[in-house]
Amino acid sequence: KKQYRVAVIPGDGIGKEVAPEGLRVLEQAAKKHGVSVHFDHFDFASWDYYEKHGEMMPEDWKAKIGKHDAIYFGAVGWPAKIPDHVSLWGSLIKFRREFDQYVNLRPVRLMPGVPSPLANRKPGDIDFWVVRENTEGEYSSVGGRMFPDTDREFVTQQTVMTRIGVDRILKFAFELAQSRPKKHLTSATKSNGISITMPYWDERVEAMAKNYPKVKWDKYHIDILTANFVLHPDWFDVVVGSNLFGDILSDLGPACTGTIGIAPSGNINPEGHFPSVFEPVHGSAPDIAGQGIANPIGMIWSGAMMLEHLGEKQAAASIVAAIERTLGERTLRTRDLGGNADTVACGKAVAEMV
Amino acid sequence: KKQYRVAVIPGDGIGKEVAPEGLRVLEQAAKKHGVSVHFDHFDFASWDYYEKHGEMMPEDWKAKIGKHDAIYFGAVGWPAKIPDHVSLWGSLIKFRREFDQYVNLRPVRLMPGVPSPLANRKPGDIDFWVVRENTEGEYSSVGGRMFPDTDREFVTQQTVMTRIGVDRILKFAFELAQSRPKKHLTSATKSNGISITMPYWDERVEAMAKNYPKVKWDKYHIDILTANFVLHPDWFDVVVGSNLFGDILSDLGPACTGTIGIAPSGNINPEGHFPSVFEPVHGSAPDIAGQGIANPIGMIWSGAMMLEHLGEKQAAASIVAAIERTLGERTLRTRDLGGNADTVACGKAVAEMV
Ligand SMILES: CC(C)[C@H](C(=O)O)[C@@H](O)C(=O)O
Ligand SMILES: CC(C)[C@H](C(=O)O)[C@@H](O)C(=O)O
C-alpha cells in the first residue's frame, strides 16, 4: 500500500498559522480513510529564509522537493520587506514554470454560512471550476524598454501562446467538463480586441471541441464574461482561460461567492512528472498575521484538492463535507465570516467532523 | 452664439432604434436650455452599408465627419453576417485610433429602478468613473505566428505602452479625480505577474501623482480589483486602467449596477483636435433588433455625456435627471428592467421630463 510523501511549505505570514490546521485535518482524514501520508517540512520560500540566506530557496530546492507526491503550500510574500517580483517569482511562479504546473484549478462554489455579495443566491446555485493556463500567455518574460526618459520612451511585453501550451490546457478543461453532469465548457476570449493571440486561442478551442462531441461549449469575451459572473453565475460549469484571464476569473469567482478568504487552488502537473502545489488563494496577509484569527478554510480545502489529485477521493470528499458543516455553524466560523472562532478552533472543528 | 454640428451614425441592429430616441431627447434638452445643435445623418459604419459597398465606410469618411464637434453613434456589428474584425476594426476602433480618442470614459452608477445584482446596495452607494486607455496597450497590431500546423507552432502579440500614451491617460484620470469631491484615484495593475509593461504603468502613475498632491491614490492588481468591484463598489471614485483592464472594468462595473443595457460611454479626444464618439456600451443586439423593445437609456445617457463634453453642463444634467426619474417609474422602463414601455415610449418619457 502506497505511502504518499508530501512537502509542506508554510511560507510567510498567516501561511504559518493556517498550515498547521490544514495538516491537522489532513492527518485526521488520512487516519479515518486508511490513507498513509508522510509530511516533510521546509522553511524556504519565505521572507524568514530570505533574510537569513539572501535567496528565496536553496540551490538544490529541486532535489529537496522535486520527488514528493505533492507540495502543500501556505502563502508567500511580504511586500513591505521584499518586493513581489523577488518573493513570488523566486518561489510560486518558479514552481509553476519549473515543475510545469500548467493547470491552475480553482473551484467557485457558494458554501453554507458564507454570505454572498450577490442578491438572492443560495448554496447550490453557484458551483463551477475555473481552469487557468499557468505557464505562458500574458505572463511572459519577453519584452523591454527603449529610449528611457525621453518622449519616445516605450515598453513592450509579448503575450506568447504555443500550440503545445494551449492545446494541453484546453484538453484538461474539456476532459473535466466531460466528466461533469452538465458537460458545459465556457472559453474566455477577447478576439475582437486582442487580434492575434486571442483568435488563435479561439481556433484551438474549436479544434479541440471536435474531440469532445458530448461537451456543449461556448465562448465569451472577457469583458462580458466578468459581467456574467455577477449577473448569471449559474450559467457556468467549467470556465477555461489564459494565464491572465484565468487569474482574473479565479479571483472574481470566489468574490461572487462571498470571499476569496476560503478559496483553494491547485497548481497541477497532470502527468505527474513533477509535484503539484496546493495552496489557498489568499496571500500572507501581513495585516492580520500573528493574531491567530486567520481563516484556515482555504488551506484545509486545498488539502482536500490535494487528496483528490492523489486519487484519494473519499478522504477528499470527507474534508469538503466537514468544511460545509463547519461553515454552517456560526460559532465555528472565523470572524471574517461573522463567526467567533479563532484559527485553531475552526481547524479543530473541521478535523472533528471529518 | 455657437451652433454645434454633430454627426449621427445609427449603425446596426438596435442602434437604429435607439438613435432616434437619443435624438428626441437631445433636441428637447437643446431647446429647453437654448443650445443650438445641427445633426447630420450618415448610413455608413453598418452592415447595410457594407452589403452595398463592400466596405464599412467610404474612402473619404474623415472628410465627411472629421470636422464635426462630436459623433453620436448607435451600435455596430452583426457577427452572423460580418466578422467582428471587419465591422469593429473598420469603424469603432478606426475612430479611436485615427481620431486619437485616447480616453474611454464610462460612469458606473446605481440608478433608481434598476435592480442591482449585489445585495443591499441602493442608488447613491455606487457612483464612480472608469477611465480606460483607448489606443494602445494590449490592443496592439504587432505580433504574428510561426511554424504553423506543427508542434512548434506559436503566436505572439505585443502589449505596447508609450510614455506619451500612458502619461496622457493618467493625466486625464488624475484631473478628473481632482475635480471630484472624494479626489480618489485607483489604478489597475498586474505588476506582480505581467512583469515588464505593468511595472512601467505603476512607475508612471507614481510620477504623475506628484503633480496632484490633493488626490489620494491607490493601486490594485486587476484580479483583486475585479473582486473588489463586487465586494466593495463603494470604495471607488475614479478607476484608471490600460486598454484591456479598462475594457473589463467598464463592463463589470455596469453589471454590478444591474445591467450593461443602460451604460453610456465616450471615446474622447480631450484636446478637441478630432471629434469624440459617444455611444451606448451595449452592442447591436441582433436577437432583439426590429422588435421596438430595446432600452434607449444607454443611447440617451451617451447624449448627455456628449453635451457635457461640449461644455453644455446644464443641458447634460437635465437629461441625467430625466433618466433617473424615468427609470424610477415601472411603467416607463423597458421590459429588460421589469417595465412595460417600448423603446419609443421610454424615449418620449425621458424627453418629456427633460
Ligand atoms: C467591441 C470591442 C472591440 C470593444 C472593445 O473591446 O474595446 C467593446 O468591448 C468596447 O468596450 O467598446
Ligand atoms: C501572486 C500572483 C503572481 C499570482 C498570479 O497572478 O498568478 C496570484 O494572483 C495567483 O493567482 O496565484
Automatic annotation (TrEMBL), chains A, B:
It comes from Bradyrhizobium sediminis. Its EC number is 1.1.1.83, 1.1.1.93, 4.1.1.73. It holds the Pfam family Iso_dh. This is D-malate dehydrogenase [decarboxylating]. The keyword Nucleus does not apply. InterPro entries: ICDH/IPMDH, IsoCit/isopropylmalate_DH_CS, IsoPropMal-DH-like_dom, TTC_DH. NCBIfam families: TTC. It comes from the Bacteria. Residues 5-350 form the Isopropylmalate dehydrogenase-like domain.
